[in-house]
Amino acid sequence: MLDTFLISFRLKNTYRVNSIIYMFKQIPIIRRVLPMSLYKNQSLKIFVTILNTIWEIISVFLGKIIYFAIMFIIPLNFMNVFNFRAMLQLLFFLSLGGAFFNTGMFDPSKDKYYAVILMKMDGREFVLSQYLYTLFRHYVGYMTAFMILSFTLQYPFWLSYILPLFIIGLKLMAVSAYLKDFKRNRKVRSENNNSPAIIGFSIGCLLVGYALIFSNLIIPIKMMLIVLIILSILAVILMSYVLKYDDYHQLSHKLLKNIDSLLNTDTQDIINDSYHKMITLEADTKSNKTGFEYFNELFMQRHKKILWKTAKRQTYMIAFIIVLIIGILFYDVETQKDANNAMTSILPFFVFIMYLLNTAKNITQAMFVNCDHSMLTYSFYRIPKNILILFKIRLREIVKINLLPAVVLALGYMAILFICGGIDQAFLAFISFISIISMSIFFSTHYLILYYLLQPYNAHTEVKSPIYSTIISLTYIICYAFTKLELPILSFGIVCILFCIGYCVIACILVLKWAGNTFKIRN
């Protein structure tokens, strides 16, 4: 079994090395320097193996620390119940839901397909070695997190070794139930396609866990410890069942039966099909416009379900939240002063909100799938003058779509400022309104210019530009950083407005100068 695990590790490492090389070879400047022989370079593979091993070790601890920070420390501190009893109770419900939702065994991954189907490795040894390694990672990661928490929550240090066994016991309980179900019904579940019952059960555990603590209903510590001890003993018993299970080979083949088509039919194809189903084909579509204006109007009318659906939902949700906040402010007048102090300094936070609301990235994807994918094969479509004309038209339409929720949000912000601060806040309310609108226009421009200057999609509508993916990630990081800032409306608002205007002007210049060379289908 150890040999099988080492082979699978080398297989996964080779796959990652080749993926990294492929990613770098997609960068225009670097790909000319990198030779094809790099794929068989042993020194590079050794270097990446070392990095991969380091990352495996770091991820064991980092993942669990982030998990506890987001799911336990922050919410429990927010509810002012950050203690051992509350943490233990929440741990039980979250682990119970997670055990059935994410078992770690029934994931039809590429490395399983390569090992079991293509390389004909023994299904039992491969699945067991991978699963035992997964459990080991869980144990070490949880143990480390519990050790760190023991200094804050003041519980016995030895519990750090026992508590991970309880979580593993729940996971083994779920896996054993699924294995027995497969032996009885010959139906295998896939973690890529959990049933509605499993999803509902997991969400239910999540909600019940937080709701009980929020309602100050804490299960007695003795009862919780008895449950933990029982589950820890159960872990030992069920481990024996998992190790002796004799149907892993058949289970692997059934789990991976359709993955060949999934590997060749990318998930992007499913997205494309969903786009095509939402197209409205109206033979009697009429318009007085000509040229690219007429071309764009046809696209907008046929794809209005895709383009406007999300924006309308966001608008309804924002309007409901604003009405609710205004109702609270009128009901509890004493909160108006605190709300006014907060509203005059949290405008930078709306950068992140507008980032989340903006749908320009999805719109550009729809444009490629249902329009540019075909039109880019024509040379007239790539003439710089025509590109700039269509860019301006599309920018106008994308801005209109995203302005729908943005205007409602900006009006709500103004209304709350007026309610809390009176007519004295009129100028600040005006600046905040223009700032939020500017943010919406900025993100609409930002995603469209990335689409035109980097055009990340290939003929199969897959993202093949590492630069595009990197900039998208950096955009998220920068926008999230704004949530940590508290700046006056006047100074931040004016800078925000000027920056957005400058960005839009520069965007048009760059598109005119460079898009003729960059706006094309990737190989």
From TrEMBL:
Keyword tags: Membrane, Transmembrane, Transmembrane helix
The UniProt record lists the keyword Membrane: yes
Regions crossing the membrane: 46-74, 86-106, 127-151, 157-179, 199-219, 225-243, 315-333, 339-357, 401-420, 426-454, 466-483, 489-512
Keyword Membrane: yes
Protein name in UniProt: Uncharacterized protein
